[in-house]
Write a structure and sequence with these properties.
Blueprint (H helix, E strand, L loop, with lengths): L6 E10 L16 E2 L2 E2 H10 L3 E8 L3 H8 L5 E4 L6 H7 L9 E6 L7 H10 L5 E7 L8 E4 L6 E5 L6 H4 L3 E10 H7 L16 H8 L4 E4 L13 H21 L3 E2 L5 E9 L4 E2 L3 E9 L4 E2 L4 E7 L4 E2 L4 E7 L4 E2 L4 E2 L3 E3 L4 E4 L2 E3 L2 E2 L4 E4 L2 E3 L1 E3 L4 E2 L4 E3 L9 E3 L4 E2 L4 E3 L2 E3 L4 E2 L4 E2 L8 E2 L18
Parallel strand pairs: 1-4, 1-6, 4-5, 7-11, 12-14, 13-15, 14-16, 15-17, 16-18, 17-19, 18-20, 19-21, 19-22, 20-23, 21-24, 22-25, 23-26, 24-27, 25-28, 26-29, 28-31, 29-32, 30-33, 31-34, 32-35, 33-36, 35-37
Antiparallel strand pairs: 2-3, 6-10, 7-10, 8-9
The protein binds uridine-diphosphate-N-acetylglucosamine and calcium ion.
Length: 461
């Protein structure tokens, strides 16, 4: 279906067939994750922003694994059984290329190309022209060099590092591999590529020399940042790009007004939305979709995944919160664990070593020390004493605990679910409560305290 600004003439082909031996992993290279998404997913997501008619991924090494992980997404796939070079890779997808329009070639292991740069390439290049993204590197070793005419400075060809002369190796302008070619020409040129070179590979880059021979103009565009065209071959390069990506995230947040204790120590592996006056201390990890409303403070070393936190709440250090909703003016942690299905209303306190799972806790209620609240509904203004545990699991099934408003639960209480603690109940410390309690009464279950005088402690014999 055609959307409004779909670019009906654009096909994007993502090359992702390479082995990635230097990753030293059983996982396909392009499936390694950067900022919580696979590298290939980054390239797919960027491609989508250009609204192409078609995105085709060329897979080969670990191809089934790649296809399974990426799982359709409306893409088309081409298989390159043997990796005989970038030109050969494109030949495997040639049947996906229409007779007219343009094809943009991207790489599954070059994850951080900005969409602005690609848009720039698309807008610079006319119908009957080719486009090439190049970059100047201090150390161009290993890359294909851009050879230009001495007089006109126009590009004449790309020479691979391994095929380059000493003189050519001094050239610092290199091929990023990203190019835009009219389909009409691709269909003419791909069958003409040969593997007569040092590596015995079909080089896609040879289409540039063919274009020159046929007097087709080649527009050269450069990215704003070198990282946009860096590829990943090993874990070190992946880690380097991860830091670049995270620093970009951090800079963007600060631009929006978020206070970061250290922009070099934050990891966002999804999307983080922040209102005004949010502050985030060091070493926090955000996964999935996290939303922090105004004046939320996140302490050091917190992990938040799919969480929404309403304004004025504070999450103290070392808290772990997942699939939960935190209301306004709450105080969580330090060392709190809030598990999936939890919803805290307004001004709730969840203190150290408290675990809450699949529970709702009402306005102004507190569980400040060493507790487990699971599968429970807690009303307003409840005080859960230290060490209180909901016994929600009987070994086979989970059961619910309901604690109504204004309940006070003494320390070290076990609430054996299913159970209802009625409004205004006070539970004496150290109780094991197995039956529902009446409203506004003191309920306790203890053996009577006795003292044995004259009792002697055992001694070592
Ligand atoms: C290629 C370019 C080089 C450029 C460099 C930029 C060619 C001939 N050379 O070199 O000019 O400077 O990229 O990084 O194009 N791939 C396949 N099938 C293959 C071979 C490669 O899918 O048969 C994929 C790889 O998975 C990778 C990409 O193409 O994503 C580039 O392959 P790689 O071998 O890294 O290319 P280079 O030799 O470095
Ligand atoms: Ca190669």
């Amino acid at each position: 279906m055609q959307t409004q600004n779909e670019n009906m003439s654009l096909t994007i082909i993502i090359l992702a067939a390479g082995a990635g031996k230097r990753m030293k992993s059983s996982k396909a290279k392009v499936l390694h994750s950067l900022g919580g998404r696979t590298m290939l997913q980054h390239v797919i997501d960027t491609s989508r922003k250009l609204n192409p008619k078609k995105i085709c991924v060329v897979i080969g090494h670990c191809g089934d694994q790649v296809r399974q992980e990426i799982n359709d997404q409306g893409l088309c796939w081409a298989k390159q059984e043997q990796q005989l070079g970038t030109g050969h890779a494109l030949m495997q997808a040639q049947h996906e290329i229409a007779s007219d329009g343009m094809t943009l070639i991207l790489y599954g292991d070059v994850p951080l190309t900005r969409v602005e740069t690609l848009r720039n390439l698309l807008s610079e290049v006319g119908d009957k022209q080719c486009g090439l993204l190049t970059v100047n590197l201090n150390d161009p070793t290993g890359y294909g060099r851009i050879i230009r005419d001495i007089k006109t400075k126009a590009i004449t060809s790309i020479v691979e590092h391994k095929d380059a002369s000493e003189f050519q190796r001094d050239i610092c302008e290199v091929n990023t591999g990203i190019m835009l070619v009219p389909n009409e020409y691709l269909h003419q040129w791909l069958p003409r590529l040969t593997n007569e070179n040092t590596q015995g590979e079909y080089y896609l880059t040879d289409v540039i020399a063919l274009a020159v021979k046929e007097n087709i103009q080649i527009k050269i565009v450069q990215p704003s940042y070198v990282y946009e065209v860096l590829g990943v071959n090993d874990k070190k390069q992946l880690a380097d790009l991860e830091r670049i990506f995270q620093l970009e995230n951090a800079n963007e947040l600060m631009k929006q007004g978020v206070s970061l204790a250290d922009p070099a120590r934050i990891d966002i592996r999804g999307s983080l939305l922040c209102d005004q006056d949010v502050s985030i201390d060091i070493n926090c990890i955000f996964e999935g979709t996290v939303e922090l409303q105004s004046n939320v403070k996140i302490g050091a070393h917190c992990f938040l995944k799919n969480v929404k936190i309403a304004s004025d709440s504070t999450i103290q250090p070392y808290s772990h919160i997942e699939n939960a909703e935190i209301g306004r003016d709450c105080k969580i942690g330090p060392f709190a664990r809030i598990r999936p299905g939890t919803k805290l209303m307004k001004s709730v306190h969840v203190g150290n070593f408290v675990e809450v799972k699949n529970s709702q806790i009402g306005n102004g209620s507190k569980a400040n020390h060493l507790s487990y609240l699971g599968d429970s509904i807690v009303g307003a203004n409840v005080n859960v004493g230290a060490g209180t545990i909901t016994c929600n699991y009987d070994g086979a099934n989970k059961h619910q605990t309901v604690i109504e408003d204004d309940v006070f639960i003494g320390s070290d209480t076990q609430l054996v679910a299913p159970i209802r603690i009625s409004k205004g109940t006070t539970i004496g410390a150290g109780s094991t409560i197995t039956r529902d309690t009446p409203e506004n009464a003191l309920t306790l279950s203890r053996t009577k305290q006795i003292s044995i005088t004259g009792w002697k402690r055992p001694r070592k014999s």
